[in-house]
Amino acid sequence: MRLEDKTALVTGAGSGFGEGIARRFAEEGAAVMVVDIDADAAKRVAEEIGGDAFAHTADVADSLSVKGMFSRARSRFDGRLDCLVCNAGVPQRNGPMWEVDEDTFDRIYAVNVKSLYYVAQHGLDLLKEEGGSIIVTSSTAAERPRPGLTWYNGSKGAASVITKSMALELAPYKVRVNAIHPVIGDTGMVSEFMGGEDTPEIREKFVATVPLGRMSTPLDIANACLFLASDDAVFITGTCIEVDGGRCV
Q1: Which one of 105, 124, 212, 219 is most buried, by most CB atoms within 10 A?
Q2: HSE-CB for 32 with a 13 A CA cutoff
Q3: If you write DSSP's letter for every residue of 31-95 in order, what string do you get?
Q4: Which residues of the chain are under the pLDDT cut of 50?
Q5: Marked catalytic residue, from 109, 117, 118, 152
Q6: Does the annotation count 152 as an active-site position?
Q7: CA angle (91, 97, 99) in 5-degree steps
Q8: How many separate domains does the chain show?
Q9: If you compute the radius of gyration of the chain from its CA atoms, what whole number of angstroms results?
Q10: Residue span of the structural domain in which 204 resides
Q11: 142: closest CA among 246, 242, 221?
Q12: Domain assignment of residue 2, yes or no
């Protein structure tokens, strides 16, 4: 198994891409800390995975909550964290940029960007001691922004640049940092990206922009993350892998 005897922490793991990542990592032998702001969702996923998986409730946009998350990881994993997947994120409802209220803007940047600052403040010691892998779920929005999602696009652009900069700064500690760029996926966020209404007609407009002809799935994203977390990617850092069916070509 590709992650045998490794430990992993996955945020936003109560549904969608994060749930897929947590399940795939566990299938490959990792002990997984399933983190989500929704306690019931995190508990469900951890219980369904079974084995060494366990749930933890945290808000990645809150400094004390992130500090507590890493404290729990240190305790449960005996001070060693091999892989951190910064997957938690929030969408922007598709619409004119000038109609997005300030609270929504602040929440997008707190979850999608500032959470990475909190990781640097509270979590790096766990990885710097023995090296490891950080994977950030960014988006094709960082490269090929869609209209009506300006503030979300900007937050993912920031996440991708931060990924590259972190990779350089953490290289001396043998900590690899990479990002995944998924195209729109069939998850709980899809209706927001479509403007609040999920219809076959609107879906077709989005799918039409993907050369391989479909949305991404949690398994698509999980398999890419599995590669980056594994020893197969031991010499890969600072990359942003497009898992997008050709959308960014």
Answers
A1: 124
A2: 35
A3: EEEEEESSHHHHHHHHHHH-TT-EEEE--TT-HHHHHHHHHHHHHHTTT---EEEE-------SS
A4: none
A5: 152
A6: yes
A7: 95
A8: 1
A9: 17
A10: 7-243
A11: 242
A12: no
pLDDT of residue 204: 86
CA distance 163 to 157: 10
Q: Kindly report the CATH number assigned to the domain that includes residue 85.
A: 3.40.50.720
pTM (global) more than 0.70: yes
Per-residue pLDDT at 193: 75
H runs (alpha helix) in the chain: 16-27, 39-49, 63-76, 102-109, 115-122, 124-128, 150-170, 190-193, 200-207, 218-229
Rounded-to-integer distance, Cα 185 and Cα 83, Å: 23
Strands 7-10 and 240-243: unpaired
Q: Calculate ∠ Cα 27-112-29, nearest 5°.
A: 10
Please, what is the angle between helix 150-170 and helix 102-109, to 10°?
A: 20
248, part of any domain = no
How far, in Å, CA of 3 to CA of 132, rounded?
Answer: 12
Amino acid identity of 18?
G
Task: List the one residue out of 199, 187, 105 whose CA is nearest residue 154.
Answer: 105
pLDDT at 84: 98
pLDDT in the model for residue 24: 98
Output the CA–CA distances (angstroms, integers) from residue 127 to 7, 124, 209, 226, in the order listed: 11, 5, 38, 17
